[in-house]
Amino acid sequence: MILTKIGSIIKQNDNFAIISHFSPDGDAIGSSLALYNMLIENGKSVDIYNQDEVPKRLKFLPYSNYIKNQLLDKKYECVFVLDCGDKDRIGNLVDIFNKTNLIVNIDHHISNTLFADINYVDSNASSVGEIIYNLLKINGFEISKNTAMCLYTSIVSDTGGLKYSNTTSMTLNIAGDLINTGINFTEINRILFNTMTKSQLKLLSKVISTLELYKNDSIAIMHVNKQMLEECGANEDDASDMVNYARDIDTVELGIFIKEVDTNKFKVSLRSKNKVDVRLIAEKFNGGGHVRAAGFTIEGDFETVKKNILEVVSKYWK
Ligand code: 5GP
Ligand code: MN
User: Fold this and answer.
1) Of 193, 209, 226, which marks where a domain is finished?
2) Where's the DDH domain (predicted)?
3) 11 and 44 inside one domain
4) Considering its fold, how many domains does the chain have in total?
5) How far apart are alpha carbons 283 and 294 in whole angstroms?
6) Pairing label, strands 15-20, 78-82
7) Tens digit of pLDDT for each residue in 171-228?
């Protein structure tokens, strides 16, 4: 059992690093910090990394301010890579591979490329948080209130508040167990799902005005560019969940969100409701993800990029 083996590695070593994907979401940060909290509670020495800043809404998580954006000049007995379908998702901190002889990849993307020395990929898990919960349980590690806060954040982030089809009865049982540690879950839900800054709300109004519908209103596309962000005093992460508004339209099966990240470079998010496997579409563009949520990066001018995406997507339309 790989989780038992990973448990032994934790018990037998003292010096760890944890890293997750760039442009981190609640699962990347939540699962990393859950593992971090548990390891330090067990007296381990741990550095926790991400290429990018922690999104504002996740800064309430314990030790989120310990996440470093630059690698230290150090070696580790073991490095955990969390929520990364492939090695490139680590971004410009990929040099961490040269700082250890033991990389452990823990993920839930079916498209995972198994890039590490030890790979534990459970595509039935709602989130990496759910896997970390199992890792701790199976190996008899205590789940403190701090760790529970991080795990709960991770799980509800990737399941849209325990609502998406990746939610199983196991996910709900785990959430229940985490709530029993006494965490303030209503406050966490409010922070994650019912809080917006003024900038975000202004940005949302601009983003919604970019809406375009195709294929009998079953495909919705919205976009955001640097100028819109600037006009609203918003940053890239402020737009991270806006793809949901495209998907939520009653007639829509596929929501597409195109975000300008650089001149002629775009990050695309795909969300589907019932039928389309968006991971397959993302993989056509060298991206990846899950059946109902996937993404990729693409270069070119905006109109060409949009046309290109619609052409590929059309092949999946009957
Ligand atoms: P989002 O649209 O929120 O950025 O990502 C949705 C899902 O797709 C997440 O599970 C994320 O990890 C995955 N994903 C997004 N972009 C990429 C990408 O460029 N490559 C891969 N492999 N997965 C991605
Ligand atoms: Mn995830």
Assistant:
1) 193
2) 16-155
3) yes
4) 2
5) 9
6) parallel
7) 999 999 999 999 999 999 999 999 999 999 999 999 999 999 999 999 999 999 999 9
At which residue do the structure tokens 């949901």 appear?
Answer: 244
Q: Which atom of ligand 1 is nearest to the CA of 269?
A: 2
Residue 88's Cβ-side half-sphere holds a number of Cα atoms within 13 Å equal to: 6
The 3-state secondary structure of 180-222, one letter per residue:
CCCCCHHHHHHHHHCCCCHHHHHHHHHHHCCCEEECCCCEEEE
Q: Which CATH number does the domain housing residue 120 bear?
A: 3.90.1640.10
| Same-domain status, 189 and 203 | no
Q: Are residues 135 and 27 in the same domain?
A: yes
Token output for 308: 């290109």
126 and 165 part of one domain: yes
To test the pocket of ligand 1, the residue of 269, 278, 291 to mutate (highest count of ligand atoms within 8 Å of its CB) is 269
Can you give the pTM of this predicted structure? 0.95
Co-location of 127 and 168 in the same domain: yes
Distance from Cα 49 to the centre of ligand 2, integer Å: 16
Q: What mean pLDDT is reported for the chain?
A: 97
Nearest CA to ligand 1 atom 16: 295
CB 127 within 8 A of CB 157: yes
